[in-house]
Amino acid sequence: MASQTISMSATARVAARASLRSSRDTSRIARLPKSAARRAASSARLAVRAAGAAVDQETGIKKMREGIKEAADENLLTPRFYTTDFDEMEQLFSTEINPNLDEAELVAILQEFREDFNQKHFVRNDSFKKAADGITGESRRIFIEFLERSCTAEFSGFLLYKELGRRLKKTAPVCAEIFTLMSRDEARHAGFLNKAMSDFNLALDLGFLTKNRQYTFFKPKFIIYATYLSEKIGYWRYISIYRHLQENPNDQLYPLFQYFENWCQDENRHGDFFTACLKARPEFINDWEAKLWARFFCLSVYVTMYLNDHSRTEFYESIGLDTTQFNMHVIHQTNKTTAQIFPQVIDTYNPKFKEYLDNLRDINAKLSKAQSPMEKAPLIAGFAANLLGVALMKPVDSGSIDFVEDVNSPAFMY
Ligand SMILES: [Fe+2]
Ligand SMILES: [Fe+2]
After folding, report:
1. 152 C-alpha to ligand 2 centroid (Å)
2. What is the pLDDT of residues 64-92, one digit of tens each?
3. Which of 39, 222, 233, 295 has the fewest CB atoms within 10 Å, measured from its CB?
4. Which of 19-28, 144-153, 392-401 has the lowest mean pLDDT?
5. How far apart are CA 183 and CA 196, in angstroms?
6. Environment of ion ligand 2 (residues, CB < 5 A)
7. Are 91 and 217 in contact (CB under 8 A)?
């Protein structure tokens, strides 16, 4: 997974919680009851703090121990770790149970993953450490935060795909191998980012995170919508940053971004695999319920990115990007890509859409400063009203439809 934007909005979390059920999954983490996992995580954090965790002199960032950064606190907008109902996943990917699965297409996808085009791509050189040393002060803190969010999001993909690869081995060996190879890619991405963090002397303890971070449960169908979008938006984020820096080499603060061109092809391939999964389940992309979920996930992913990126515009400005322009470009492109398979998408070209996004951004900024529940309540109500505003906008029908001849119809853009 590439994107840090898979985190769900408040409404999405409610939906996720509603679908929470006692799964029989055998992954070590998922078997921990939620409350126990939370207790374990918080006592581990306390123990670390009690041990006298130091602070990085230059940035003020808390350290877990020498060279290791204390993970940022989780909130609604931080990248999450996911777990799912693995028994239902087995049924979803079994060709016996699900004859719509196009075995030939899956084998072709698997072949591509086996080729391993990026096997030799993620090789570092001496310029990394030197460039990191040159990033100082507030920029340094923001840069580390960007690396942490990206690393956590990539690592989240690694954990989920790895477990799916393990669980599907017997019933769906082709898909299982695809998941395992995708987890290989995500491990590389996360590892490369974590190495970058160590250039700043603040790497993440990924083993500690695996054991102590909370896991959000999503039903398989929602995992597929969310990961599809996450991979595609990740592709557009990486390629847009890459292209911008190719045109503006003076903004190339750190060599990491030079790797984004091949890197984002991994994300694109991952997304294409989920396209094949969606095509295999017509009920995921055909009926009114599918249309609703399609728009809901688009909305969650776009809003989460917009709020996240706008609350750290300094980072995007430091590499010469205009945050709003960059975000709108990524949203439009992702929406067009998504329209190829989702049955409905949001009309992102409608000027009202950006108005709602800007309102949400402003309210979010005020919310982060609000102290009392009295201050927060009207802001939360305003936030919900604006989310509803986008949800009620006239959607664009998409997916397998004939092209639209009316040039004034929003669907003409897709
Ligand atoms: Fe990915
Ligand atoms: Fe990735």
Report:
1. 10
2. 888 999 888 887 788 899 999 999 999 88
3. 39
4. 19-28
5. 20
6. 2, 154, 186, 189
7. no
Residues shown for the chain: 414
Cβ–Cβ under 8 Å, residues 284 and 221 = yes
φ/ψ of 22, rounded to 5, equals -75, 105
d(CA 181, CA 164): 11
Q: How far is the first Cα of the chain from the last one, in angstroms, to the nearest whole number? A: 25
Give the ligand with the smallest distance to the CA of 229: 1
In the reported structure, the alpha carbon of residue 2 is separated from the centroid of ligand 1 by a whole-number distance in angstroms of 5
Say whether 258 sits in a helix, a strand or coil: helix
Ligand with minimal distance to 150 CA: 2
Burial of 89-120, coded b for 16+ CB within 10 Å and e otherwise, reads bbebbbbeeeeebeeeebeebbeebeeeebee
| Residue 17: its H or E element | helix 10-18
- Output the CA 389–ligand 1 centroid distance in Å: 31
More confident: 40 or 29: 40
Q: How far does the centroid of ligand 2 lie from the alpha carbon of residue 183, in Å? A: 9
Contact 392, 339 (CB under 8 A): no
Å from CA of 326 to ligand 2 middle: 20
Residue 379 CA from chain centroid, whole number: 26
Between the CA of 107 and the centroid of ligand 2 the distance, in Å, is: 21
Buried b (16+ CB within 10 A) or exposed e, 244-267: bbeeeeeebbbbbbebbeebbbbb
Write out the two tokens for 129. 């450490």
Q: What is the DSSP letter of 116?
A: -
Instruction: Write out the H or E segment, with its range, that includes residue 344.
Output: strand 344-345
CA of 186 from ligand 1 middle (Å) equals 6
- What is the C-alpha to C-alpha distance for residues 2 and 118, in angstroms, rounded to an integer? 15
CA 332 – CA 346 distance, rounded (Å) = 10
- 24, 87 Cβ separation under 8 angstroms: yes
Whose structure tokens read 């515009």?
A: 313
| Backbone φ/ψ region at 372: left (φ over 0), alpha (ψ -120 to 50), beta | beta
- Quote the tokens at residue 335: 């929406």
